[in-house]
Amino acid sequence: MVDRVQELGVRDPRVLAAMRCVERHRFVDQALASRAYEDTALPIGFGQTISQPYIVGRCAELALSGTADPKSVAALEVGTGGGYAAAVLSELFGTVFSIERVRALHELARANLRPLRIANLRLAFGDGMLGLPTEAPFGAIVSTAAGDDIPAAWIEQLAPGGVIVAPLGRGTQVLTVLSRSPEGRLVRREHEAVRFVPLLQGTVTAENR
Ligand code: SAH
Questions:
Q1: The pTM is what?
Q2: Would residue 108 count as lying in a domain?
Q3: Closest Cα to atom 17, ligand 1: which residue?
Q4: Vertex 45: Cα angle to 42 and 51 (nearest 5)
Q5: How many domains does the chain have?
Q6: From ligand 1's centre to the CA of 198, what distance in Å?
Q7: Residue with CA at minimum distance from ligand 1 atom 13
Q8: What is the number of other CB atoms lying within 10 angstroms of the CB of residue 148?
Q9: Do the domain assignments include residue 67?
Q10: What's the domain range around 192?
Q11: Residue 154 included in any domain
Q12: What distance in Å separates the CA atoms of residue 206 and residue 14, rounded to the nearest whole number?
């Protein structure tokens, strides 16, 4: 699977090594386990998916691009889903916080990640459009769900020298990187077209589903 990710264009050796460390079958339903190492998104319930491995690698590579010393950086992932990308990011960054708006998926990620005992990964339940103010600032913010634009809270919580990696748009989405220079200047770059599930406001619990 990681060879395929590399063929498709992910070059950063740190990302490829991280992806070789995380067993993706732990994050897909048993019924789909035989497909866990295909380079494809798969359903995880609640209308959500585990991202395509190539896309996880690509986003991680872009997230690293801003940072000289990622092991000293706190990163925020918006959209934990089943927790696969969070596990990959935790191999790369000093600390990773990952927030999910669907309570049942937050709990699924907890269950998937528990046996891995990743000491530098913290999961949060809540609306990631608000970022995670209690843990800010972040040197990298990676969204695995697509909104219309980058929420103001993410920009407020972005450290100098940090990057936001986010798919933007409806229908056709563009993988967008917003970086904040050490002096505070914001620079926005658009990359390839992608397809992610939508970034939605609010939270979903058993009570309000
Ligand atoms: N990171 C996952 C991908 C999950 S799909 C992986 O590694 O495979 C994207 C996830 O974003 C979904 O679980 C969806 O519920 C979640 N999401 C969408 N809007 C959100 C928001 N505002 N805050 C937090 N999570 C959100």
A1: 0.98
A2: yes
A3: 79
A4: 35
A5: 1
A6: 8
A7: 81
A8: 10
A9: yes
A10: 2-198
A11: yes
A12: 39
